[in-house]
Amino acid sequence: KKAIIDPSLFKYKVQPIKKELYETVIVKASQLSRRKHLFSRDRLKLFLKQHCEPHDGVIKMKATSIAKYNLAEQNFSYFFPDDPPTFIFSPASRRRGRPPKRASASLVSN
User: Region labeled Disordered — which residues (predicted)?
Assistant: First the structure.
């Protein structure tokens, strides 16, 4: 069983987009931040509208988006290079706090 690693111990190598102006640096996790509201319901809806379409009840990427971003040439490990997560199994539970419904004696006919 693998030990759980504290995310605050990670260090990140940050490479600039404009390499001629800036140099690569290594930073601690506590030095990183993200803008609030970067991911929102409206942005998700826009992403789905621009890059996805329904096919037989399944949402799939549009062919134009796949070609534009060369997604056909990539595999899952390109985007997620670490080991896949392991989830603890928990059995499905019945409706919480309420016993299952039973037929009332007054409704049953002979």
Answer: 88-110
Nearest to 69 by CA among 55, 52, 53: 52
Q: Is residue 1 part of a domain?
A: no
Residue 43 placed within a domain: yes
Handedness of CA 95, 96, 97, 99 (dihedral sign): positive
Give the span between the Cα atoms of 100 and 16, in whole angstroms: 59
Q: What is the pLDDT of residues 68-110, one digit of tens each?
A: 999 999 888 888 878 877 888 888 766 555 555 555 555 554 4
Q: Is residue 44 classed as helix, strand or coil in its secondary structure? A: helix
Could you tell me the pTM of the whole model? Answer: 0.44
Would you say 30 and 8 are in contact if contact means Cβ atoms under 8 Å apart? yes
CA–CA separation, 22 and 14 (whole Å):
10
Domain that holds residue 58: 7-76
Number of domains in the chain: 1
Could you say which DSSP state residue 98 is in?
A: S
91 in any annotated domain: no
